[in-house]
Amino acid sequence: MSNTLHIVGGGMAGSEAAWQAAQMGVPVVIHEMRPKVETFAHRTGDLAEMVCSNSFRSDDDEQNAVGLLHWEMRAANGLIMAMADRHRLPAGGALAVDRDPFARSVTRQLRDHPLITVEEGEITALPDDGHWIFATGPLTSQRLGQAIAQETGTDALAFFDAIAPIVYFDSIDMSQAWMQSRYDKGETEEERTAYLNCPMTRDQYEAFIDALLAADKTEFHEGETAGYFDGCLPIEVMAERGRETLRHGPMKPVGLTNPHQPDVKPWAVVQLRRDNALGTLYNIVGFQTKMKYGAQTSVFKMIPGLENASFARLGGIHRNTFLNSPTLLDDRMRLKSRPHIRFAGQITGVEGYVESAAMGLLAGRLAASEILGQPLPPPPQDSAMGALIHHITGGAEARTFQPMNVNFGLFRPVEGLKGGRRGRKDRYKAYTDRAKAAWRGWLEQAAPAPAQG
């Protein structure tokens, strides 16, 4: 049997899996259907293209589970984090990246690697032999999705991801808007002014909600249902849950002072985050939507400061397919019915760029270690990656399984620490200290991947 590892899908998970396996000395073939077979959301043929937000979320590795996942990926010399750091944009305490140079850099690193080959074309069936990782993500092609469903004996589960719009900076009225990160968070002035803020009065907010609720929405095809992931709800769905929902969500006015009217407290605030290094593009934070294009432009231009906005991209909606991993995958991410096949990334039921890349990192290392005849144990449950993979492959309730972001609720309690909000800071620090020690120990069991140059 060939010792080549085949990886289907060149997104965050597939790219990271390929890098990890190749760095361990295993030859890799990445099978990517783009650009021959296009998708609704992708614009290029680059690997690791970011199709939604340009943020990897919090970079705090002591008080935030996502930041801890960043730390673990960096400790494993992950390609995705190395390229994200190289193309970092100011975003307060978050890690946001310049999306196009980021994807081009990931693509270049993989194509230039002597053990990695990229083959363009669609894989439509599950192979009978070899070493495979399927990391086809939320936009798994219809024919491959049918093959997976036939093998697993179940209909593919699905929810819908909505994409937020992007605005040209020079079309924003800065006499109304201002630059400030919430609570002035960040170590530099650039970080403390990483977000663009558009304030609303109560009357403006109420009119905006009325327009949002009345706007024309994308219609679903017959037989489709919209089971949204709560971490990525379209704004109109949030508004339908209550008129105050947005004001306590992405439009919350806390931690911000309008320099144009410092004595006036905004009723709500719309935030935009820089989307490229030039600062010419800004995405509207939390404003993923399924409104029709014409409705989007009219509704979003009701936001103070965006009355004359020009949009580089309007929002959209796409289907996201994922497995019922607790019933189908083992603790090494292998398909129980065909152990030579692993799954990684969002199709396993994790949500977010970081989580997807992390599952790719694990799948790549686990597969490579088996090929090399030195199989690794599953990652320790006390690490962030271990907590996440434990959840999706057995810890979650299979009957109600839904996509999951990494969070401290997935971690085993640390004995002797105070519960509740008051003890949260000490508790989170204990989680992250324990996780880092556990992760270092697991990494030492594998041939270390060379540092990214």
TrEMBL record:
Cofactor field: FAD
GO molecular function terms listed in the Swiss-Prot or TrEMBL record: flavin adenine dinucleotide binding; tRNA (uracil(54)-C5)-methyltransferase activity, 5,10-methylenetetrahydrofolate-dependent
Catalytic reaction list: uridine(54) in tRNA + (6R)-5,10-methylene-5,6,7,8-tetrahydrofolate + NADPH + H(+) = 5-methyluridine(54) in tRNA + (6S)-5,6,7,8-tetrahydrofolate + NADP(+); uridine(54) in tRNA + (6R)-5,10-methylene-5,6,7,8-tetrahydrofolate + NADH + H(+) = 5-methyluridine(54) in tRNA + (6S)-5,6,7,8-tetrahydrofolate + NAD(+)
Keyword Transcription in annotation: no
Single GO biological process annotation from the record: tRNA wobble uridine modification
Domain MnmG N-terminal per the UniProt entry, residue ranges: 5-374
Enzymatic class: transferase
Keywords of the record: Cytoplasm, FAD, Flavoprotein, Methyltransferase, NAD, NADP, Transferase, tRNA processing
Pfam families linked to this entry: GIDA
Record: residues binding FAD: 9-14
InterPro entries referenced in this protein's UniProt entry, alphabetically: FAD/NAD-bd_sf, MnmG-rel, MnmG_N, TrmFO
One annotated Gene Ontology cellular component of this protein: cytosol
NCBIfam families: gid_trmFO, PRK05335.1
Protein name, as recorded: Methylenetetrahydrofolate--tRNA-(uracil-5-)-methyltransferase TrmFO
